[in-house]
């Protein structure tokens, strides 16, 4: 029997708890129940309720720009449900207060003719620090001046990706305050990743965003990452562009729903701020050093771009900016990223910023840039789609992060001269192994098709949906989602296999929402029925796992044997954290995070480190719980059920 037929026959017994809008309300209330602990006292959404969580954030009571973007989206749907968008405005205001850096004191020194000084990305943390190379040509930043003209400021309006909500690390980098120490109350901006594609979270050295050389070693933390003749006290931030794009996407929907309710004037200020964020989000479109896009091989050979020659127009993995502390120098820098993962693309946001009057940014070329980006992103989906329908990794303008020469099988079929990479940016674990990237990104593609009816997108979506219906398992009222994917081949002949399955909440809800948008948009009655049945089956199965804190399914985190993982520190380098842990060549993940030993669940980790099996854990990640609520609400809105 075909998988699509099986899905059509799925009947989830015993779940008659009301409409999907009721389920949204129920899940929303659980997230906002203060006894459940999803938010800090400042109203910041934690990455998870639990503290012993090591993923991209290395502690559950950190948070990310990703979580904030989901918070904005959650409150947008609540506005639709209640007709009151005050919680939506409050979510953005909280985001602006705590995770958009206001301390950017020397960005006025920025020279768009020389955005940054070049340094290679290296293969392993043990190769760092990476030497600064002043002779390598870099390009020009073509948007800085128009952004300054549009907004009258040098500061960048973007979320820094990581926030230590309870100041657990003790840096105390609150807005405008650098290295205030462990006694500082409230959220603190921090950094982690900075040492190449094999620097998993287990091998990171957390560091402050404002490095005054108060903590760390003689040069703070700087000489762990960059090799230079001397070091200057400085500040630096990094954006995760997919999160900024998701927040803007949520604002798009808030506009539509507020108009339906006749209250669009109540969200005008938030909409204006989202438009501004979208203007600065264009830094995601550029090569890391603003070099020319296409066949860019050899850091010295590959020239700097002028105008938009350095724009790949895709949503890249990150962009970053920083500069000297005010009393330490008068210089600053901005970099993009040469690599773009399909999972970060957001055609819905590109469409909104280029066509929706309320969201069109002020920058002189912004609307055209986003219109170009929309088409370029759609091209990328087509270029990366496998024989089966899934999307392979991404493309890069800088092979190995240092403009190396790629292998010959990657040079014959390039994407605007950019090279295919099945695991762009990071390799531990491979960046396109996780199925969740499929649902996250295709959800946005399906939303774009739903609002635009762009016929060029339909065959891409049809192929992906057909694949998903064949690999998602819905049986006896429960579900199994693909987890690890394996890849073979290069464009135009790439294939995918499902390596392992999982009971993951967020990927199930994101898949259900994607299928729901597709079902609501397609004119094919059979395809509509199959996609809608699968979406409903997934949502009903998720609801069967309801608890007083949300949707709960125990899991076995396969990475949790790595708490004793060595963290590379150069021989002879010694430093200290605000809470007293020493950083030296004997460092391990737990050795520089000794406070984990006070965690309520630490005994489980002790058992693992003693050779025991990894036990089950229950996690309540904010993004996943919000994703479930959003999926319930979206299904209700689309189908009035």
TrEMBL record:
Keywords annotated in UniProt: Carbohydrate metabolism, Cellulose degradation, Glycosidase, Hydrolase, Polysaccharide degradation, Signal
Q: Which GO terms describe its biological process?
A: cellulose catabolic process
Where does the signal peptide begin and end? 1-17
User: Recorded GO terms, molecular function?
Assistant: cellulase activity
UniProt-listed Pfam families = Glyco_hydro_48
Put simply, this protein is called Glycoside hydrolase family protein 48
């Amino acid at each position: 029997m075909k998988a699509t037929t099986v899905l059509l026959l799925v009947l989830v017994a015993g779940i008659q708890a009301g409409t999907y809008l009721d389920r949204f309300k129920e899940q929303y209330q659980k997230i906002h129940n203060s006894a459940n602990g999803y938010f800090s006292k400042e109203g910041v959404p934690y990455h998870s309720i639990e503290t012993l969580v090591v993923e991209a954030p290395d502690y559950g009571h950190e948070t990310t720009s990703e979580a904030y973007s989901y918070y904005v989206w959650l409150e947008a749907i609540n506005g639709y449900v209640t007709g009151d968008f005050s919680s939506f405005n409050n979510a953005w205001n909280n985001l602006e207060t705590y995770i958009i850096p206001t301390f950017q004191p020397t960005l006025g020194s920025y020279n768009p003719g020389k955005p940054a000084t070049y340094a290679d990305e290296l293969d392993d943390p043990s190769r760092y620090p990476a030497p600064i190379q002043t002779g390598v040509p870099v390009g020009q930043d073509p948007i800085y001046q128009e952004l300054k003209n549009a907004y009258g400021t040098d500061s960048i309006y973007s979320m820094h990706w990581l926030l230590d909500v309870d100041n657990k690390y003790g840096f105390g980098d609150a807005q405008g305050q650098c290295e205030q120490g462990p006694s500082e109350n409230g959220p603190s901006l921090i950094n982690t990743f900075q040492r190449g594609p094999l620097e998993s979270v287990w091998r990171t050295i957390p560091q402050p965003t404002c490095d005054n050389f108060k903590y760390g070693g003689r040069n703070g933390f700087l000489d762990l990452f960059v090799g230079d003749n001397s070091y200057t006290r400085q500040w630096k931030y990094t954006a995760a562009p997919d999160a900024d794009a998701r927040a803007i996407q949520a604002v798009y929907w808030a506009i539509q729903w507020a108009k339906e309710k006749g209250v669009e004037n109540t969200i005008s200020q938030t909409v204006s701020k989202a438009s501004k964020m979208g203007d600065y989000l264009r830094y995601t479109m550029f090569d890391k050093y603003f070099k020319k896009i296409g066949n860019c091989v050899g850091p010295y050979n590959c020239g700097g771009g002028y105008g938009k020659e350095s724009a790949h127009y895709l949503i890249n993995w990150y962009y970053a900016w920083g500069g000297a502390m005010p009393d330490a120098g008068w210089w600053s820098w901005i970099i993009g990223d040469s690599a773009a993962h399909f999972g970060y693309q957001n055609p819905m946001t590109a469409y909104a910023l280029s066509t929706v009057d309320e969201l069109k940014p002020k920058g002189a070329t912004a609307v055209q840039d986003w219109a170009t980006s929309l088409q370029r992103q759609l091209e990328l989906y087509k270029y990366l789609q496998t024989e089966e329908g899934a999307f392979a990794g991404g493309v890069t303008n800088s092979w190995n992060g240092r403009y190396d020469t790629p292998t010959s099988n990657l040079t014959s079929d390039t994407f605007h001269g950019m090279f295919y990479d099945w695991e762009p940016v990071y390799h531990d674990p491979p960046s396109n192994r996780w199925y969740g990237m499929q649902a996250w990104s295709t959800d946005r593609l399906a939303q774009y098709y739903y609002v635009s009816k762009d016929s060029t997108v339909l065959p891409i979506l049809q192929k992906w949906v057909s694949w998903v219906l064949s690999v998602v398992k819905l049986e006896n009222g429960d579900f199994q989602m693909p987890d690890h994917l394996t890849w073979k081949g290069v464009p135009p002949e790439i294939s995918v296999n499902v390596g392992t399955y999982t009971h993951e909440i967020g990927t199930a809800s994101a898949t259900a929402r994607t299928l729901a948008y597709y079902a609501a948009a397609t004119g094919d009655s059979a395809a509509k029925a199959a996609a809608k049945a699968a979406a409903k089956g997934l949502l009903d199965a998720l609801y069967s796992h309801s608890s007083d804190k949300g949707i709960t399914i125990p899991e076995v985190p396969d990475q949790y044997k790595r708490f004793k993982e060595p963290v590379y520190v150069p021989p002879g380098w010694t430093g200290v954290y605000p809470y007293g842990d020493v950083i030296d060549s004997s460092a391990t993940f737990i050795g520089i995070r000794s406070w984990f030993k006070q965690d309520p669940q630490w005994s489980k980790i002790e058992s693992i480190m003693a050779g025991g099996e990894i036990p089950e854990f229950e996690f309540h990640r904010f993004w996943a719980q919000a994703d479930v609520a959003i999926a319930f609400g979206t299904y209700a809105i689309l189908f009035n059920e």
